[in-house]
Give the backbone structure.
Amino acid sequence: MTARDGQHDRFVERAARITALRRRRVLAWVAGVALVLGLAYLLLLSPVLAVRSVQVVGVDAPEQEAIRGSLESSVGTPLARSDLAELTDRVEERPTVESAEVSRDWPSSLRVDVVPRVPALAVQKSKRQVEIYDIDGNLVERARSAPKGVPTVTADGTEDVGADGVRAALSLLESLPEEVRRTVSSVTVDPAERVSFRAGKTTVVWGDASEPQLKVEVLSVLLEEKPQRIDVSTPRMPVTR
């Protein structure tokens, strides 16, 4: 074999290696594209990873069912394409919900974490209906009776409790320390928005919304004696009986 023949063989061998390397690179690129397309189909189009269930956390069973019902249209949608912000907004439109967060729970579920509104006051509208508000004055729901432990506000007179009366009652409750608020069973509002309430076995005449901090300080001292009636409407001259 001449030197020229050996050089030619090395050239052919090198060309073959380059061709094989290019072929492997092309095949790897094609395989990569196919993998990406396959994953994209699996995530965005395939029913394999579609929403099959909605898990709701943070509320009782009836409210869980109601929230799942509001998201029913998302079932069957590929999980990756679920608009979490839009679904969260939909849940937060419910009056019973203070805030919510919807997240993906792979492979086929949505998880809804809910912070519910806490009932603080029930307004008696008729014998069979009360309106339930949270401490911020948001109407939570209408029901036949007040939830257990939630005080009921009524009007002192023949008229129903109006919006101003509800605000006066809520302002009172917000002013009270938690240990006193837990004992409040009923609230009465008169036409001038003067408030009275029942704390345990004691009737408290609160009056208007003025000087709430001083009223709380005086009330906390006087409640220790467990009188039948306390009048702190003029907190610098309280009256007990």
Observations:
- The domain at 47-116 is CATH 3.10.20.310 (Ubiquitin-like (UB roll)).
- The first strand starts at residue 53 and ends at 57.
